[in-house]
Amino acid sequence: MGTTFGSEQGLSLLKHIKRVNPAVVVFAYRSKALAIEHADFYRLADGTLRKDAGIAESLEKIEDGLRKAHSLQNVWKGLLHTLGVEPDSQQDQELQNLFVRGLSDRGKLQKLRARITQIAGSDGGQQIGFFLLEKLVEIGVKAYVGG
User: Fold this and answer.
1) Do 78 and 137 belong to one domain?
2) Are 49 and 29 in contact (CB under 8 A)?
């Protein structure tokens, strides 16, 4: 039997998830109308799923969430967060430049990997950074070739 979360516990959990990794896509699962006291929770959530929604509506929302989660912008946000780099900073611009140029120049991609190694510090951070970089390259190549 599951535990029922109160609205404050759910909000605290959602804030923690978004603080740990803002790129995680979270949907709120709800059974009633949205109440004003839950506004912060629904503002932080990436979307809502109604318990009484049909399969088609639920699948559509889930597919939208997956598209967002696997978008270039969202995966980039996850990489920056992993590396502790502020969005729109000079370091972000440098990494973006290496990434974009790296899609057609393997040498630039190697420089980007080296920068990730430098910035990440820990082995865990490097592994996550490399995983996200591979995903970014996959998404970037698909966009580049129109796939």
Assistant:
1) yes
2) yes
Which pTM value belongs to this model?
0.77
Helix extents (H) in 4-122: 7-20, 39-44, 55-69, 72-83, 90-102, 106-120
- What pLDDT was estimated at residue 108? 92
Q: How many CA atoms lie within 13 A of 35 on its CB side?
A: 6
| d(C-alpha 109, C-alpha 29), whole Å | 40
User: Domain check: are 31 and 56 in the same one?
Assistant: yes
The answer to whether 45 and 28 have CB atoms below 8 angstroms apart is yes
* Residue range of the domain that includes 128: 72-145
Report yes or no on 133 lying in a domain.
yes
Q: Which backbone phi and psi does 27 adopt, to 5 degrees?
A: -105, 140
pLDDT of residue 43: 82
